[in-house]
Amino acid sequence: xxxxxxxxxxxDGLTTRQRRNRPLLMVHTGDxxxxxxxxxxxxxxxxxxxxxxxxxxxxxxxxxxxxxQTVLERLxxxxxxxxxxxPVEWHKMGSGxxxxxxxxxxxxxxxxxxxxxxxxxxxxxxxxxDLYVLDEFTYPIAWGWxxxxxxxxxxxxxxxxxxxxxxxxxxxxxxxxxxxxxxxxTKVKHPMDDGQKGQRGIEW
Amino acid sequence: xxxxxxxxxxxDGLTTRQRRNRPLLMVHTGDxxxxxxxxxxxxxxxxxxxxxxxxxxxxxxxxxxxxxQTVLERLxxxxxxxxxxxPVEWHKMGSGxxxxxxxxxxxxxxxxxxxxxxxxxxxxxxxxxDLYVLDEFTYPIAWGWxxxxxxxxxxxxxxxxxxxxxxxxxxxxxxxxxxxxxxxxTKVKHPMDDGQKGQRGIEW
Lengths: 204, 204
Fold this sequence. Notes:
7 helices, homodimer, alpha/beta, Cob(I)yrinic acid a,c-diamide adenosyltransferase (chains A, B), Rossmann fold, CblAdoTrfase_CobA (chains A, B), P-loop_NTPase (chains A, B)
């Protein structure tokens, strides 16, 4: 993928450098594979730039653990040990948010999701991370557990230079409208259609 | 992304375990972002499973270096030092394939691409890697530098249990036909449309 050239230059009074350094709101949506994988790949890329990475997985299951968590947390420890790359935090709703006292309140995912978003708002206000991966965050919005307008307002007005990636199907129209970059992953062909189950290393 | 369940079970005489362990040919195509990023994310996931990873970038530029190369090569060294994960090799056409005597023959990308494919064929025959990332390999096929039928035949008949991911736009119809899993990344919105140039950590 070559370094892209803009197809046109806007008259927004910004220099190329200012425009280049604009923090991005990115959305990976659609029914295909690769939404989260590409987001975690960007986190790996950001780590390499020395960025402070925060991953927030809005998944219901505590057991579910993707290989990227192991690797990115390992990279975070590598940073602590050798100074390479940047720090990494990985938080998961299903196991109970690590900052929360209520551990995995199976009963009330809506409250868990709202709590996760409240923490992310605090971190955005404080400029805690350089890159936020809000994995599967489209669902709590779609289900009304988190208010879409609040999300859009907060993200649009976040201070400093914080990149945000939101992944998941059924992205809210307001989120798409607000995003700088939207990619839709479309399933053209998938082995599960042929009766194949997910497999280690490929699906997790 | 929860562990998927098959939508139907084929009568192919295979057990679920056999079917599950089928090596996959995956293609990431389309005009959107995330094709390579998701492939490198899968490589990170595979590394975590202890897989032997081979990345072959069919890019013309020797200078171009994505953050994932630094990180995956670092993970490869970590494997050598501590036994964590698996080994990683990263080869790039633009800088002259590392196994080749001709260093970056700027003049003849077609010959370079053919040489890269010849090496990959040897490795597939030998079962050298568990996961091959053939990054931007759609282009040498599209340009006729590498024969599409040869690619399809070789990949369809590769021995053992070797996963292959091919990335790039304009994937050849025969490749799509042969692939187990095809994902199309579609650009819905991109900041370069607004005159923004690519930026560090996001584009590379």
